[in-house]
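Hi R.,

As promised, here are both runs. First protein below:
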Amino acid sequence: MKMSDEEERAIAAAGKDENGDSIFGEFYINITCAVITSTTITYAAIIYILHFFFSGKIVRKEIKADIVYEDDKVLAFNDINPQAPVHILVIPKIRDGLTRLSKAEEKHKEILGHLMWAVAEIVRKNNLGDFRLVVNNGPEACQSVYYLHLHILAKRQMKWPPG
């Protein structure tokens, strides 16, 4: 179902990051992971604003999170809606316009490498053994939060194909 221009403008205006960019990325333009109505648009907008808001609050330690790893560039915490016995979110502390992996620029090479190293460190320190690393990229991949983040899923037998 296509959104009206009014709905698109409302979502686009609802949340901006520190650079004035939409926190929704392209979500409001091409939604493929759910049937959308005006009610779900409002609900979705609230969820995305809250997640963006809370991610920043978690990084600044203004709200409590079950933090499992932190260094000067990365923060990792247990997901509040786990999809496996262990489900850890890993986020860069500074977003720098990195809304999703396909939007990465040369300036992001260092943080992208550090995120991967941090995943390995988290897995080692928490004795997770085998794990799955997930990065959802864009609406067709059901990316729900346009703040690059990695999901570490562990402690259960994964299946293939995953989706």
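And here is the second one, sequence first, then its structure tokens:
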Amino acid sequence: MSLVTVVLRIHLTHLVKLLNDHSSPETESIVFSLW
């Protein structure tokens, strides 16, 4: 696994945690679109 992948995973999990706190459907759809 490359360093870039690790960093991206960390940022993505951090984003998911923030989204779970706010529970905003709009931001959730944005993150899912990134996948």
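A quick note on the second one: The helical segments are 3-22, 25-34. Let me know what you think.

Best,
J.
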